[in-house]
Amino acid sequence: MSCVKARVLFTVLASVGLAILYGLKVNLSVAIVAMVNHTALADAHQGENDDALADVGFTCATPDNQNSTHVAQDGPFVWNELTQGYVLAGYFWGYIFTQYPGGRAAETLSAKWVLWTSVFVNAVFTLLTPLAAKYHYGLVITVRVIEGLGAGVSLPALHVLLSKWAPPKEKNRISSFVYAGMTLGTVISLPFSGVLASTVSWESVFYIQGALSLVWCLSWPFLVFDSPLNHPFISHEEKGMLVRELKLDKNENEESQSLSFPWRSVLTSVPFWAILVAHVCNNWGWYMLLVELPTYMKQVLRFEINENAFLSALPYLVSWIFSFILSTVMDKLKQKELLSVVQIRKISTGIASVLPAICLLGVAFAGCSRIAAVTLMVLAVMFISGMYIGFLTNHVDIAPNFSGTLIALTNTCATIPGFIVPAFVGALTHGNQSVWRWQLIFAITAGIYVMEFIFYTIFASGDVQTWNQPKPGKSAQEAARLTIDTKI
User: What does the alpha-carbon distance between residue 363 and residue 445 come to, in Å, rounded to a whole number?
Assistant: First the structure.
């Protein structure tokens, strides 16, 4: 194993782990298209919204190249738009509650095992989803809540691991590669789910993806470790470099346990609030596209499930590639001292907010132009990947000792859009999948992106904050006092 650098192995497996979590998060967004009986829903909506049915452009016309006699693929469940919104939102109801516990557990216990537990829980409950759906949609919501509870600890754990495995000169590239797993999982899961749902069954989406995810759970414990200091087969050269560059200490875990979290300093820290606001605003747009894009492609632009799944994945494939290009360019600019850390964070966050806002406004006015709408959505998702080396890495810059807890706090708040967005879209489009309703949705999202850019650009910082080294907690103070007494 010495021929493979330990930090490279960590980076690849961490990215794959995150890809699994995001793949299992979004597979329901595609599967639900095949699970729902759209014909029965359409019949139920007849006469329900006469004013809506009179709207110009209620839905886009079916393209000429599609068979006019084609029968829509229907599933067994008559779940209306509101019910679908609740089912899709269930994941985020669980996700929001384990952020802080996950961050503290990763910092004081083992980030490696926290992340393993996250993936394992999601794999197991993904396998249980078809059984739950056949009993009641309430059970599907319950299963998704549990998956969310498991996934909520993943980002805090990864932040802690990155603080031990990503040296300063490689931080942008390693962080970008790891977090690009979010995109990679979406790229693979969306088309794969579409193929399985249309050629095998909607149940196979959950059985096959859940089973494959367990393979990662078998490899992670033996190949990745919490720190270079306790890695059994890392080379002496690499270990020495990481210890020197990251200033790692043999007693780092004991020290991190004794540091009390500086709540007052954090909650009054302007740079922290800059990250939090950016995270919340960006996640609104991210979840809008991640969760609702397949529905928009199906219900408004009239794509069939196969092409819907592939086209829904296309933006994330482009985004995955773009994130590597952007991180490499930013690392080179930093090495040449042309950009500082905070400039990289602000520029990258600007790319992830202003440019998607422009693209979504374009989608709002593209109407039923399928080529224009798809092109603009591809560009929007591509630019969002700037967040990986923007605000999403900023926690490690301002407080590496508490990076896990900091991202737990911002991601807790940033999860709120995850369960608001599906309900929000479901309420606006209930019985009325019209172009103009979606134009309103995209326009609101663009406005939120602009707010993110303004706030973060004004208040963000790239400097380590003074509260990163707070006074030790009572236990450490007592230990120090005992040591002094002994010496006397």
Answer: 11
Rounded to the nearest angstrom, the gap between the alpha carbon of residue 291 and the centroid of all alpha carbons in its chain is 11
Q: What is the pTM of this model?
A: 0.74
Q: How far is the C-alpha of 487 from the C-alpha of 447, rounded, in Å?
A: 63
Q: Burial letters for 367-394: b for 16+ Cβ neighbours within 10 Å, e otherwise?
A: beebeebbbbbbbbbbbbbbbbbbbbbb
CB of 432 within 8 A of CB of 52?
yes
Is 388 within 8 Å of 180 (Cβ atoms)? Answer: yes
pLDDT digits (tens, 9 = 90+) for 94-124: 888 888 888 888 888 899 999 999 999 999 9
Instruction: Work out the number of other CB atoms within 10 angstroms of the CB of residue 286.
Output: 22
Distance CA 284, CA 335 (A): 33
- For 439-475, the pLDDT digits (tens) are 888 889 999 999 999 999 999 998 989 998 755 544 4
**336 contacts 93 by C-beta, under 8 angstroms:** no
Nearest CA to 420 out of 267, 308, 315, 281 is that of: 281
